[in-house]
Amino acid sequence: MPVQNEHVAEILDEIADLLAIQDANPFRVRAYHNAARTVRGLSRELHDLIARGKDLTDLPGIGDDLAGKIREIVGTGACRALEKLHRQVPHELEELLAVPGLGPKRVKALFYDLRIRTTQQLEKAARAGRLRKLPGFGQKLEQRILQAVAARQSGTRRFSIDVAEESGGKLAAYLGLVPGTGKAIIAGSFRRGRETVGDLDILVTTSRPAAVMERFAAYDQVARVTSRGATRASAVLRNGLQVDLRVVPKQSFGAALHYFTGGKAHNIRVRTLGQKFGLKINEYGVFRGARRVAGATEASVFKSVGLPLIPPELREDRGEIEAARAHRLPRLVEEGDLRGDLHVIANGRDDLVAMAIAAKRRGLRYIAFTIRQGPDAPADAVLRQLDRIDQIRERADGMVLLKGIEAEIPEDGRLDLPTEVLARLDLLIGAAHGQFELTRARQTARLLRAMDSPCFTILAHPGGRLLPERDACSVDMERIVRAARVRGCFLELNSQPQRLDLADVHCQMAKAEGVLVSINSGARQGEDFRDLRFGITQARRGWLEKDDVLNTRPHAALKRLLRRTMD
Q: What CATH number does the domain located at 5-153 have?
């Protein structure tokens, strides 16, 4: 079986993590992580590219050394460099890396400062309150680590939405090739757009259920089949993701799709409504006595209880039933509504012209190139990069190019940017990338102070989370949202599947306060614009409509809004 791209990326990420534990050169560590990201973003499998004679050094961030290692992994499924690191780094530390919330830096601190090597020692230290004394930890992280250890011990594991999409999408398409098969759809929390999923539910309609079951068991990414019957089967994929397959008749498909999509609380509400109408609603249909009266489509299930079709992303029992009854369901934003992307990394991995062309191919009409600006970056270096953006405008294939800064928010929140730089900008984005262990009060004050800075336009990924490694930091989002309204600035929903930040509940909060949300990709290469679809899904979970999103506006209207923040 050919080695898949995800396996290559996992090895590259593992090499990076082990190098980080060894305190290797951070640029070397970053190179491996960047290579893994490039591999995951490829639209074709590496084994196919290699077979066709593709020069891997043409890929973003891939030099001769990394290209050689990738060819080795594709050819053998392993990498000698990783095997060497396994001999050098205690294997217990690798187990600690698998605990959500513990990246290489924290694992290194645990080992060298507290001599912690195992999850048992980690749990004991957390329960004794010893972790919170380490720099970069704190009481909240200590509690999250305890929860993560408990989840590992219970056998549960969460997967990011992009991994679930790739794994489930390929499997559903594979099953759909069985002759006589109609629909093959992924349901569950994935269909509701949850940021992470524990497993996948795939529903299939077919005239040949036995053939579908046989094909499912024979799928090359199935590690083991855990159960198998005439219409139901379960398996664990090679990446550890559990998949439950159900073959359902056409007349029950809508009922099954509703049943396996909605959150538990939502489904209970719908079933309770059904009882008031004298109906029984389950995965097989809507019944009045022994007679099925609905269930072929989801719309028929909702109609049976007097409701319009509720979008999957809203089925969490957060007011959608009441809104549907009152005919006040939002017209949720769609990917086609986006006119631009206001957070594209200017010093990323792709040429700026190539980035502009890639954005246009995705249907965007403007992008903002943002230059990453640390507190000590010299003004002349930033001005040269701004000049570079100006110089390529004629080659940007009609794309409107905006100039911005992504300024690092320091611990004290001060953004001291030179006046000559601010005068050249269309927007200023503030982003926090560290010091997440600060108390709730200090973290909130840090962001509020940054938002008070001259020309402040957008607060990037406000929660600072990095799924599944790091949860959102402790910050008073209610104060942040209200401050954004008062100051007239905006909040970002970063579409990277490892962020998806704003959280959905904070999108609702922003909508209620009239604060516009900017759905951005944080793209470093052209392929990254595809992540915008994850941001759209998150926005839909947050009840956002087209007018609630900053970058659904035409450039002229956007320009007026941005100008207000730059005065």
A: 1.10.150.110
Nearest to 386 by CA among 366, 368, 371: 371
Token pair for 165: 């999409």
Main-chain dihedrals φ then ψ at residue 220, nearest 5 degrees: -70, -15
Q: Which fold has domain 159-247?
A: Beta Polymerase; domain 2 (3.30.460)
What is 256-325's CATH topology? Beta Polymerase; domain 3 (3.30.210)
- The first and second tokens of residue 207, run together, are 């005239």
Rounded distance, CA 96 to CA 149, Å?
A: 10
Length of the chain: 567
| Strands ordered across the beta sheet of 242-247 | 181-186, 199-206, 242-247, 232-237, 222-228
Evaluate whether 460 touches 496 at the Cβ level (below 8 Å): no
Cβ contact 494:500 at 8 Å: yes
Instruction: Write out the H or E segment, with its range, that includes residue 369.
Output: strand 366-373
pLDDT by position in tens, the chain (length 567)? 577 787 888 889 889 888 888 888 888 888 998 898 888 877 678 988 899 899 999 888 899 999 999 999 999 888 999 888 888 887 667 677 767 677 777 888 888 788 887 778 888 888 888 888 888 787 777 887 787 777 666 556 788 999 999 999 999 999 999 999 999 999 999 999 999 998 999 999 999 999 999 999 999 999 999 999 999 999 999 888 999 999 999 999 999 999 999 999 999 999 999 999 999 999 999 999 999 999 999 999 999 999 999 999 999 999 999 999 999 999 999 999 999 999 999 876 668 999 999 999 999 999 999 998 765 567 888 898 899 999 988 788 789 999 999 998 999 999 988 889 999 999 999 999 888 878 899 999 999 999 999 999 999 999 998 887 677 888 999 999 999 999 999 999 999 999 999 999 999 999 999 999 999 999 988 999 999 999 999 999 999 999 999 999 999 999 999 999 987
- Whose structure tokens read 């593709």? 54
pTM: 0.77
Distances (CA, A) of 417 to 313, 344, 379, 411, 547: 40, 20, 8, 16, 32
Containing 518, the helix (H) or strand (E) segment is strand 517-520
241 residue type, one letter: L
Q: What is the dihedral of CA 374, 378, 379, 385, to 10 degrees?
A: -80
For 302, the token pair is 């909702």
**Do 448 and 479 meet the contact criterion of CB atoms below 8 Å apart?**
yes
* CATH architecture of the region 335-566: Alpha-Beta Barrel (3.20)
Provide φ and ψ at 107, rounded to 5°.
Answer: -60, -40
Write down the domain spans for the chain: 5-153, 159-247, 256-325, 335-566
CA distance 261 to 234: 17
Rounded CA separation 447/450 (Å): 5
